[in-house]
Design goal:
Largest sheet: 2 strands, antiparallel
Structural class: mainly alpha
Oligomer: single chain
């Protein structure tokens, strides 16, 4: 039977962990009470004579009678052994009232001091749970009010769009004829007047729709008016304080104006020469509001779980107290708990019901089953078949790789100088697949560790819970990928040994590469389509970094690319090899000696760092945080170091050696500082965990110290480019592949601590529900 403490640990919301009742602390206090109740060792002094000393034959009868009497009169009133008093404290602003519970012992206990400490801590936990629940309840109720207001405005605008379409269809011909008749008299002025009147009419319609939903206009009396007497649409709008003040956590009132989505609607109705309210904008706004409703419902569900788990925890802990103390205190205390705010309030349940009905009506065409698919997405459970195929493909990979090693040894691939063309042409293609498979395997290890340590990576990366990749899926993709690659390598060697034409055999790597590209972009819902399309979308966002808002998953993936520069270089040589049709002539130097190919090496080595630097600039622009500019400097220094090392590999002079040392040392120190201090949040000299941080997910601190040392060693692998531990071209390629693999391993190791630090930041701010941007968003009053 699983202990409740472990069950609670497995079910609680990780980001709200500190707000849950501290079950373990209360359990330890009960153990202290139990220890204090143990009888003291017998004294050496003689026992005083007692009138009841000795046993009687009637003792069992007396005991039975007492038991019967207790059961008979169990319903009669018994004196309570404790009283829980409730007092109300006003907050500093005076707008809110906090309920504080305090327990007083009516009956004396033999271990009174320990019991008093226990109930004092129990009261603290109850007050903490109540206050947190009330704060979150207020926040979600505020979100609900704002979403209802957004939905009402959206409904009015959709109605305007529908009505205007009907009028345009019925009146377009009549308007055109009238304009044609008047053109001979006024040279087009009546047509212009008609257009102006139509624009004013549309503006009045929108203002009327907003005003019907409680929207007022600032300084409307002093602003210029439309012909209908309405203030022009260039004015800012604000939602009344009754709605604005409902936003949870908002210290400022909401001065709501349209976002970029609605910029044309409010400020420039004639831009683009078309309708300033169009179907595309309406659909986009509807999607934003729908996502906000889904997040609100998810947050309400989490708060409901929070209440039920805490109630169970209080019940369990009070039963343990009754068992240890031999008293019946649980009934009295649990009555107070049930009357407290986090249990007695039904606002969360009522709001959940309201969200369900609103969502069903507006976003699911009154289809409740369809609505619940959005609100409560089904999370598929891990299949045993996935585990089976992971084991199967792992076994196949090991067997095929052993066969490949034997065949390569027999054919002299890695020893004979005559086989240099194999290492220069075919081997880079297979290296691409090997590095990708290794990276996929490391990502699977990351998912496994994040799951076991209760790190909510799906929330951090904003993945859909029902389609997010799990660690078994990642292992299946990696083993399938690598098994296919090794099988192709074995077939390639067998066909070469069988005497097939080299120009035909060497097309196998290209066919394999083409096959995997087709699988990646396959539009059919097979082989993890949501994951594949998400990967493609993230790559697009990375390449176009300045033009897309940068999310956590975007810069996380961009960091992965900075560790895969050897893979990108291999792709360059592979592309040149097949595009130049070198597989027919086997002149592998055709690409390497080309000027464009040599110049592209700089571009490819710079690109991941450049994209990452552009993301830092975009984040600085969006957030006005200078740390992003400092972070950009790290990638610029890495870019310079990479370029200098490429030049040194071609021109091995003392000057370039000095530049390699200087640029690489500066970039490495920059990277190590950012890794440990910013990305991992470590090296805090004032931390209670020496040179780490106060909160650690892993219980054994030695893992963090070992990880710091490992990251340090792998970060200085560039020293190999200076010392050049190479004997032959074959060994040179193998060493390059080994160093590239070590960098992938370092990145996978870095990933865990980076996401762990992000998770702890969310925990510190109790952030378990994301905030979805709305079509009508907050603006500063002076905006």
């Amino acid at each position: 039977m699983v202990k409740f403490s472990k069950e609670l640990e497995a079910q609680l919301i990780p980001e709200w962990k500190e707000a849950f009742v501290n079950y373990c602390l209360l359990k330890k206090q009960i153990k202290k009470i139990k220890i204090s109740r143990k009888p003291k060792p017998a004294s050496h002094y003689p026992i005083a004579h007692h009138s009841d000393f000795g046993r009687s034959l009637l003792d069992p009868i007396r005991k039975l009678a007492r038991t019967f009497s207790d059961k008979l009169f169990s319903n009669s009133e018994k004196p309570e052994i404790l009283q829980v008093r409730r007092r109300r404290n006003s907050s500093e602003t005076g707008d809110d009232v906090e309920e504080i519970y305090q327990t007083e012992l009516v009956q004396l206990f033999s271990e009174e001091d320990e019991v008093k400490v226990f109930f004092a801590r129990l009261d603290e936990e109850l007050n903490k749970v109540n206050q947190f629940h009330k704060a979150k309840e207020t926040e979600f109720l505020g979100r609900g009010e704002i979403l209802k207001k957004q939905l009402e405005i959206l409904a009015e605008l959709k109605q305007i769009l529908s009505d205007r379409k009907k009028r345009n269809l019925s009146g377009s011909h009549r308007s055109f004829s009238s304009s044609a008749r008047n053109s001979d008299f006024s040279a087009g002025s009546p047509g212009e007047l008609s257009e102006t009147q139509s624009e004013a009419s549309r503006t009045d319609e929108i203002i009327d729709a907003l005003e019907r939903n409680g929207v007022s206009f600032i300084n409307s009396a002093t602003r210029s008016k439309t012909k209908g007497g309405k203030p022009k649409m260039s004015l800012r709008v604000d939602i009344p304080d009754a709605v604005a003040g409902a936003e949870g956590g908002g210290a400022r009132s909401i001065a709501t104006a349209t976002s970029v989505l609605w910029e044309e609607l409010v400020n420039n109705p004639r831009s683009g020469g078309g309708d300033f309210i169009n179907r595309k904008k309406i659909q986009c706004a509807e999607k934003m509001i729908r996502s906000a409703f889904v997040e609100l419902y998810r947050g309400l569900g989490l708060l409901k779980t929070y209440s039920s788990l805490n109630m169970i925890a209080f019940t369990k802990i009070m039963k343990k107290f009754d068992k240890v103390s031999g008293q019946q205190a649980s009934s009295t205390y649990l009555k107070v708990v049930k009357r407290s705010q986090f249990i007695s309030s039904d606002k969360v349940v009522r709001l959940m019901d309201e969200v369900e009905s609103v969502f069903t009506k507006h976003f699911a065409n009154n289809d409740r089953k369809k609505a619940m698919k959005f609100l409560k997405p089904h999370q598929t459970k891990d299949s045993h078949m996935v585990t089976f195929f992971v084991g199967l493909f792992t076994g196949c990979f090991i067997s095929l790789f052993s066969i490949y090693i034997i065949l390569a040894h027999l054919s002299g691939i890695f020893t004979s100088g005559a086989q240099v063309s194999y290492m220069e042409t075919v081997y880079p293609v297979f290296s691409v697949f090997a590095l990708l498979s290794l990276h996929m395997f490391m990502y699977g290890c990351n998912l496994f560790m994040w799951k076991n340590t209760r790190i909510n990576y799906t929330f951090i990366f904003e993945f859909a819970p029902n389609t997010a990749l799990r660690y078994r899926d990642a292992f299946l993709m990696g083993t399938t990928f690598m098994t296919s690659v090794v099988a192709a390598m074995v077939i390639h060697l067998i066909l070469r040994a069988a005497g097939f034409s080299a120009s035909q055999v060497d097309t196998i790597p290209g066919i394999l590469l083409l096959f995997f590209i087709c699988v990646l972009i396959c539009p059919f819902d097979t082989f993890y389509r949501p994951t594949r399309f998400c990967f493609i979308r993230i790559l697009r966002n990375i390449v176009c970094s300045p033009f897309y808002k940068v999310l956590m998953v975007d810069f996380f993936m961009a960091d992965q690319l900075t560790s895969q520069i050897p893979l990108l270089r291999h792709l360059e040589s592979t592309g040149c090899y097949f595009m130049a049709q070198s597989f027919k002539t086997h002149e592998y130097n055709t690409c390497k000696n080309g000027r464009i190919y040599r110049e592209l090496a700089y571009l490819i080595s710079f690109s991941p760092y450049f994209w990452r630097a552009m993301q830092c600039i975009r984040r600085w622009w969006d957030e006005s945080n200078s740390d992003h500019l400092i972070n950009m400097g790290k990638y610029v220094s890495a870019m310079v170091a990479a370029g200098v090392r490429i030049t040194y590999a071609r021109e091995s002079t003392t000057l370039w050696l000095t530049m390699v040392l200087v640029s690489s040392v500066v970039a490495t120190i920059y990277q190590l500082y950012w890794d440990f201090v910013k990305d991992w949040g470590l090296l805090n000299p004032k931390s209670k965990n020496p040179w780490l941080r106060d909160n650690l997910v892993l219980r054994n601190k030695n893992f963090y110290y070992l990880s710091i040392a490992l990251n340090l060693v792998l970060r200085v692998a560039w020293i190999e480019t200076i010392m050049r531990f190479r004997v032959s071209p074959v060994q040179s390629h193998l060493l390059d592949f080994l160093l590239a693999s070590l960098e992938v391993i370092r990145r996978g190791h870095w990933n865990f601590y980076r996401v762990e630090n992000e998770h702890l930041n969310n925990v510190g701010q109790f952030r378990a529900v994301k905030t979805v941007p709305l079509p009508f968003r907050d603006m500063d009053s002076d905006g």
